[in-house]
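CobQ/CobB/MinD/ParA family nucleotide binding protein structure dump, as promised
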Amino acid sequence: MVKPVVIVVGADKGGVGKTTVSRTLLDYFSVNNVQTRAFDTESPRGTLKRFYPGITEIVDMTTTADQMKIFDTLNSGLSVTVIDARAGLLSSALASLRDIGFLDSARSGQITFAVFHILGSSIASLDEIEETATFMSGAKYYLVKNFINDTQFFQWDQATYNSYFHRIKHATELTIPKLNEMAYEQVEIASVPFIDFVANKGRNDEPATNSFVLRGYVRHWLANVWSEFDRINLTELAGAKSATRAGEK
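structure tokens r here:
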């Protein structure tokens, strides 16, 4: 049986592009033939589900019943579970995972667990890192600087920055570059995965008439994002091998 892989994407601050990162992960696993399912915790109205309706379920992760939907079904045969945690949920979600024994299972090697912590630009994000890091024993911890919204990161004293990051020696930093604003907007309007937009597909795989220029911007951006995922050997984390580039679905 394939060992379950659980990836939580979140932050305690809103507006940092968590769902965008979740979408790039789902596309990356799709083109690398990794079976994946997703949970959208923006209950009752999901954002991630709009782009991936076939593999995404909306849940309220603060309830025991919906926690059971996620974690009682990890051996369903799907190797990767991506959880897009809504703003403000990350710390409480990790505390719940500790309380149900999930983090112990990750430490013992029964489950592969990773957290993609999407950072904001304020000093509060450094405090978030310190709090989240206390749950990361036995987990892969990725600190993600997402420039999708023209964010400027950590414009403060370098010693302050280092004092936080040096405490978390097992964390890995990732950078998500900025995507052309018009290209990003058009993908949002199309409500399709990035890879479908590049392939000029609409909803239900119907042919689309997306701009050649905008498709090119998305293709180039997605390749840069995936090179970051390749750098951290994300497919190996999921028990697969990287094989495909952006637009080669």
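The chain has a mean pLDDT of 86.
lmk if u need the other ones
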